[in-house]
Amino acid sequence: MPDTSLIHLLIRKLENFAELTEEEKRALHDAAGPVRSYGSHEDLIREGEQASGVAVVLSGFACRHKMLPDGRRQIIGYFLPGDMCDARVFILKKMDHTISTLAPSSVTTLSREAVLDITSRYPRLTRAFWWNTLVEEAIGRQWLVSIGQRTALERVAHLFCEIYVRLQSVGLATPEGCELPVTQSELADTVALSTVHVNRTLKELRRVGLVSMSSKSLAIHDFAGLRALAMFDPGYLHLEGEGLIKDRYAHTMLRTS
Amino acid sequence: MPDTSLIHLLIRKLENFAELTEEEKRALHDAAGPVRSYGSHEDLIREGEQASGVAVVLSGFACRHKMLPDGRRQIIGYFLPGDMCDARVFILKKMDHTISTLAPSSVTTLSREAVLDITSRYPRLTRAFWWNTLVEEAIGRQWLVSIGQRTALERVAHLFCEIYVRLQSVGLATPEGCELPVTQSELADTVALSTVHVNRTLKELRRVGLVSMSSKSLAIHDFAGLRALAMFDPGYLHLEGEGLIKDRYAHTMLRTS
DNA sequence: CTGAAGTATTAACCCATGTTAATCACCCGG
DNA sequence: CCGGGTGATTAACATGGGTTAATACTTCAG
User: Fold this and answer.
1) Distance of alpha carbon A153 from its chain centroid, rounded?
2) Can you give the pLDDT at residue B241?
């Protein structure tokens, strides 16, 4: 029996969408494979490979990223504790991007069979997986808007707001701040700025009293101000248990057999 | 019986994923609601509204876009003829972005009921819908990389490559080029540049003999060169009928009942 | 405790892209 | 054929953010 105690973070996250029964929670526990520990900057899945199951980050930080042939790199998403990959990953023949840890992390995997089993037995869990995917896509759209339209200061502020709220939703943030075990140069690859300019931007955010980022953690001094600066509207994270899927027919959607 | 003859473009597109039977094609035809014609710059669905069905663009051009409170706008995806929205749109309680036409377009809608019916009866069609969604997400990731890491010239070149190949896949491109009924300022909102710089960039692409964009159409003079400049690798469009989903179990995935 | 490697910070300078604003070209309704 | 509006093009100038490079801090293995 693997130690999957930390899977409660995934459960907690999914419960932002809908309450789960004890049975459903148990099913998630049982579905989890062994927990593997990774150091910083190890690859979970590489571009071109086929995913063998759905990864769930239990602790630590990971990210999706893509590189251009000449080495320029863009981070296209973060995995925080409790986050899982899209439940459809293993449909794809090959990954079009790489997933790597940013910090030492523990990760478990829901095997293909376990996911198929769960989704055939627990409609509500399945819907929660959908919700998870939809939120991830909405986050991607926000990142596009940020990188395309926001200034450096707004961009970094927006990212900080998002991470803070996401960590809050799984109980990993305090009013004072949260962990952020990410290097300035990784931040740079995330918000599409140079390291030097990220440094300047952090300095400015500190100067105006909004946040300060020390080694591996983020201190939030004025969330309202940060939010205003970033034009951050948390709606896209759908964390209100808002019953995304209320329709009683929705559960049949895209059934394929 | 609505005139949905143009739905063959959707069929043609889906057949990039897998061959469809006559019955499946007929089902798609029958599922289509009335065709509506839109002029330029009309909204199909607005941010905050709930989608009532899955839109399919039969002719013309449309896009997804988001605006910041102060008016800055980012286009986050294009709908070309034959493209359909994610089959899950109507799960969401509210859209987090707006979909509008860029040019006069005709659009049909697969109602919620029609989609549920199709997906419950035709597993292969359902898988084709999945494929469609997965490709759209991969496109989103590419855009993030483009806007984050590519220079203005590379960015515009990459967008042109993508549009050209996508139109090709539904038979709407010739060796000489394709339609592109998009304004320079819309292009600017797409690639996150100013209109002036888009103009400079187009001039440069013309000067070096790669493409020229005249009113509403794109002439491709040297696709290989364009592709090299953009570092464009069409793999992410999954147009090879590569059997994304080969696994005979995959069709049960995420069944929710 | 020491050295090496990675990370952060800063300053100086540069350039890709933004801004403003003028002019031109085109289209379309009357 | 005229007039007005939208879109394209250019020039001149401004600037946000990139680059380079020097220095300092942190971490950690030994």
Assistant:
1) 22
2) 64
Q: Which two tokens stand for residue A56?
A: 């769930």
- Residue A14 contacts residue A238 (beta carbons within 8 Å): no
CATH class, range B5-142: mainly beta
Please tell us whether the domain made up of B145-237 is placed in CATH 3.40.50.11540: no
- Lookup: tokens for A153: 């200061």
Q: Which chain B residues have a beta carbon less than 8 Å from that of A149?
A: 68, 72-74, 192
Number of Cβ within a 10 Å radius of residue B209: 11
Among residues B112, B139, B224, B103, the alpha carbon closest in space to that of B175 is found at: B224
Between CA B97 and CA B106, with CA B102 as vertex, the angle to 5 degrees is 100
From the number of C-beta atoms within 10 Å of its C-beta (0-12, 13-18, 19+), residue A241 rates as exposed
Taking residues A65-69, report their average pLDDT: 96
Give me the CATH topology for the region A5-123. Jelly Rolls (2.60.120)
CA distances from A238 to A128, A137, A157, A167, A245 (A): 12, 12, 20, 14, 12
Q: What is the pLDDT of residue B126?
A: 85
Q: What is the tens place of the pLDDT at every residue in A12-41?
A: 999 988 899 999 999 999 999 999 999 999
Residues near chain C strand, CB within 7 A: A 183-185, 195-196, 199-200, 202-203, 215; B 151-153, 192-194, 196-197, 215
Cβ within 8 Å, pair A93-B242: yes
Dist. CA A6–CA A249, nearest whole Å: 33
The residue extents of the domains of chain A are: 5-123, 143-237
CA gap B236, B256 in Å, rounded: 28
- Amino acid letter at A109? T
User: Is residue A84 over pLDDT 80?
Assistant: yes
Short-list A46, A51, A28, A62, CA closest to A112: A51
Q: How far is CA A73 from the centre of its chain?
A: 19
What are B66-89's pLDDT values in tens digits? 999 999 999 999 999 999 988 777
Q: Which fold has domain A143-237?
A: Arc Repressor Mutant, subunit A (1.10.10)
